[in-house]
């Protein structure tokens, strides 16, 4: 575990799997809902935060996703998107994040007349405003947008084209998200083909609500460089016992490929518990295959997924893992360096970011 004098919050961190519509402040939701007449379960900020956490703690990804009807409902105007994005960056910086890739689905923010391009521009405006405010406060943070297509919809190619169109305006990559089971990656093969020809990096939600076939699809159809969650990759790992003292581990072909190619796993411990992604192994953090994957040499990264729904932060997720598995500062540094190398930044910028992580851990 980190030493008594170590503040995990003060350690520099990288956030790769963080949903914009999953990280709103409860008070912001209340203030954005009132002028547009959007009905909320409660208008008390503390109670609303509790409502999100309770509703999300369902053991089902489908039920978990229903809470987003509320957050996306108040993110339908330019002003709402700008504010949410600005505050999101401030909250990342307060959590010690120095680089974050923020994912969101523009197609879910069109009910009040915005175009796809206008939503991206609004979010970028908010992100840049947040970066400026963080700088004024004496800190530094970088962020990039991951443009997401909803896997149950039929707009994958259109959203992929949107991502490429804005790659010079803050967009660093592409993702598909939403209901995983029954909506395989190959439904969006035309989008992935387009992205591959444009050399746009891709991460795909896979191995959360569906198993190995979903991961295969992410790798084959999506050409994914990272797996969003990917926790059920552990289904392709066999642990046996040679005798009373010795065990053996055998990797299946999918797990072997992911490990050998250093394809990053965007693991989100608290969220994985809430959605039932680790149900095959148990219902406690100690049952999470995170440590197994780490010890076997997979490129594991630690993420929040949705800060509001999971009532969490990157600091909290790292603390939970440290308590569960006895990790120390060296382990936490490995997780951040894994995330640096998996980020969608150019190589020289990743090297600079890695230097910042090493320097930051050395001084805390």
Automatic annotation (TrEMBL):
Database matches in Pfam families: A_deaminase
GO MF term list: adenosine deaminase activity; metal ion binding
Source superkingdom: Bacteria
Alphabetic keyword roster: Hydrolase, Metal-binding, Nucleotide metabolism, Zinc
Top-level EC class: hydrolase
Cofactor names: Zn(2+)
Residue span, Adenosine deaminase domain: 12-358
UniProt-listed Enzyme Commission number(s): 3.5.4.4
GO BP terms: adenosine catabolic process; hypoxanthine salvage; inosine biosynthetic process; nucleotide metabolic process
Family matches, as InterPro entries: A_deaminase_dom, Ado/ade_deaminase, Metal_Hydrolase
One GO cellular component term: cytosol
Protein family membership: Belongs to the metallo-dependent hydrolases superfamily. Adenosine and AMP deaminases family.
Name of this protein: adenosine deaminase
Organism of provenance: Cryobacterium shii
